[in-house]
Amino acid sequence: MTTWTLTAHELPLRYLWKIARNASATKTNLVLQATQAGTSGRGEAAPNVRYGETPALLQAQFTGLLAHGLTQADTLPDLTALLAARPVAHALRFALESALTHCLAARAGQPVWQWLGVPAPSPRVATAFSLPIMEPGAVAGFMQEHRAGRFKLLKIKVNQEGGLDLLRAVAAAVPGHPLLVDGNEAWPDADSLLRFLEETATIPGLRMQLLEQPLPAACATDYRYLRPRVGVPLLADESVTDTADFEDIARQFHGVNVKLMKAGGYQRGIELLRQTRAHGLLPMLGCMVETSLGIWAALQVSALADVHDLDGLLIVRNEPFGLVDEEEGALLVK
C-alpha cells in the first residue's frame, strides 16, 4: 500500500515573470509525497494555464484518484493503469509518477537515473537563463542585477509588439552572446514571423542561436513552410506535449523542447527525448517555473538532451528545498 500526501506551496517570484500570453508575480505548485514501508519520494506539479491547469483542478483530480484506488497503485504499471482509466492534468501526472519513481528507486537503493535506465547525469549541467518580457530600458539593470552574462545561453521571452526593441536592448547589453528567442506562440503566421526575422537581422550584436515556438501549435502548415526559410533552428515547445507525430514534427522543426511537466511523466519524457534524437532533431530539456524538486527530477534524465533550459528554480524567491545548486551558469546535481 502507498500512502499519498499533497501540499500546496505558494512561491513568490524574484521578479515579474511575463511571457507572451500571461504574467505573474507568484506561482502555486503542488508537492506530492508517496510513502511505502517507511520510504518516501516526492514529486512536483507546476500547473500551466496554457493547458488549462490550475492548482484547484489538480487538487480536485488528486482527491478523485484517492477515491478510486490510488493507494493501491504500488508499482508504475499500477499507476499507469489507473491514470489510463482516470486521466489527469499532465503536471499532476508527472508529480504522481515522479514521487512513486523516487520512492521505488530509494527502496531499491539505486539513483533515480539508474532506476529509470538512462545514462548518468553530468555533475554539472549548463543551463540557459531566461529573461522575461520587460521594458527595453530595464534590460541592462536586470542583466547586471542577476549576473546573466555567466550563463552561456540566454533565453529571451518576446512578444510580437515589443520583441524587436527588447532584442535590441539585449544585444546592446551583451553583444554577440548566444540567444534563444522564445515567442510562446505570439506570431499569427509565417509571413509576419519572416518580416520580424528580417528586422532582427539588422540589429547590431544580435546572435540568435535558436528560435522557439514562435507560432501557435495549430500552424503546422506555416511551420513546414518556415523550416527551410528561417535561417535559425526552430524548436518545438507547445507543438509537442505527451505525444507527437515525429515524422511531421521533423518537417516543421529542427529540435524539440521536452518538459517533463508537459509530457506528464518520466516515461513519456524519456520517450520524447529519444524520439527527438532518433529523428535527427536537437533534443532540449526544459522546465516550467519549478522549485529545485522539479529541476532535480529533470536533471536525472539530462544526459538525454544536448541543450538544457532548467532555470525555473532561479525564478523562485527563497526556493524552499535546496536540492540543486547553481554555480557560474551550471546546475550541480545533488
Secondary-structure map with pairings?
Elements: E1 3-18, E2 23-36, E3 39-45, H1 55-67, H2 76-85, H3 90-108, H4 112-116, E4 124-126, E5 129-131, H5 139-145, E6 154-157, H6 163-173, E7 178-182, H7 190-200, E8 207-212, H8 220-226, E9 234-236, H9 246-252, E10 255-259, H10 260-263, H11 266-278, E11 282-286, H12 292-299, E12 307-308, H13 312-315, E13 324-327, E14 330-333
Parallel strand pairs: 5-6, 6-7, 7-8, 8-9, 9-10, 10-11, 11-12
Antiparallel strand pairs: 1-2, 2-3, 4-14, 13-14
Helix pairs in contact: 2-3
Number of strands: 14
Number of domains: 2
Rg computed from alpha carbons, rounded to a whole number of angstroms: 20 Å
Strand content bin: 15-25%
Number of helices: 13
CATH topology of the largest domain: TIM Barrel
CATH class of the largest domain: Alpha Beta
The residue ranges in which pLDDT falls below 50 over 5 or more consecutive positions are none
Query: Percent range for helical residues?
Result: 25-40%
Strand order of the largest sheet: 5-6-7-8-9-10-11-12
CATH superfamily of the largest domain: Enolase-like C-terminal domain
Instruction: Specify the overall morphology.
Output: globular
What do the pLDDT scores average to?
97
Q: What is the ordering of alpha helices and beta strands?
A: EEEHHHHEEHEHEHEHEHEHHEHEHEE
Supply the CATH architecture of the largest domain. Answer: Alpha-Beta Barrel
Distance between the termini: 29 Å
Derived from helix and strand composition plus strand pairing, the structural class reads alpha/beta
Instruction: Specify the biggest β-sheet.
Output: 8 strands, parallel
